[in-house]
Structure prediction request, 420 residues.
Amino acid sequence: MTSTISETFFFTEEPDASGKVFSLYQGMELRSAFQPIYSLSHCRIVGYEGLLRASKGLTNLSPYQIFSQAREEASIVHLDRLSRALHMHNYCKMQHGEANWLFLNVDPRVIVQGKYYGSFFQELLEQYQVPPEQVVVEIIEGAIDDEIQLSESVGFYKDLGCLVAIDDFGAGQSNFERIWRLAPDIVKLDRSMIVQAMQKPMVRRLLPGIVSLIHEAGSLVLIEGIETAEEAMIAIETDVDLVQGNYFGMPDFQLCLDEQAKRIADLFHRYQQSSSWDVSQKCLDFYGQAFMQAVRKMQSGITPEGACQALLELDRADRCYILDQQGVQLGSSLLKNHAAAAKSTRRYQPLAEGDGAIWLRRPYLRRALQNPGSLQMTRPYLSIATGQLCVTLSMAIVLNGQIAVLCFDIHWHEEMFVPK
Prediction:
């Protein structure tokens, strides 16, 4: 580039002498707004997303209205670069040496065609002396169909040293294959996922598993669009790393002051209070005593049928079974009600008989063997024997001189049930 970024895009100084600038584009006045991004664990701001704001006269315009003005390929590239340069200039004028990230969106059309319009981004970083590792480039996950082009674009920004975030994951037809292939540094979960988690207990239960899967792929997870305290609690429950939304800070023309530490600490306190008396704990409290009585009876020589009778009479009880150290089931499962069980599991009848089945892969076996004599409880999962959601209580005990694991399945309902 033969001129400075400011000269190229005709930036105009703000009247308040702050050093910030705005730009004119087709009669619109374009400005930068910045929304804070928090680390939940650190209880502080770790980044800001640059967002474009525009007005025409007294009318405010949405980003969609802004970019709809650019119809030709060259105009799209110009407007996208103008937006990023505007955010970069204003951010550098306001931040005071902090190492926080600056999140910048890149228009999907520019990702595909931008390379044909000369170099830009590296020169932008060099002019403002911004370390590339301080910039997170956001790419909308479902907006590019050309997989080769998408991979090349992600590789380009990574080679510069920038971080790459996949944006709006979970909206439309998102797929995990792109996460495996692109290995983004950050995955931003679309607001629609937290809205669904608010409405559907099943989604709320599955969301932590989705976050865990993304973590195992090597990416940090950010949930965006958090607007209420309850949505913030879901973010806490899911073990996401980063949060963004109006609940934590509105987009502003100034960099938001870091004033949410107490609010986040209060969320963790609320989470701690709820998790210590959550439904899992209530389930253990309700069934634990009867389970321990069954263990004592079996160890005193009473048959499993007799020892587990009272346990199986409890509400939502399903079955008891015994495994050896290799996870092999010893004998048939003891069912609460043979007639009712046969009717409810008829569709899964080929899987109902467990004698000799190998449950070595099941978490309830591993945890019990790792913690002998301690009662363990799983998360809800689909029972292969019934096709229904269940949780399993398990404990490694000594029977006839051998280590065995007593298991007890409990029917789990979609709602957060509290045993009565």
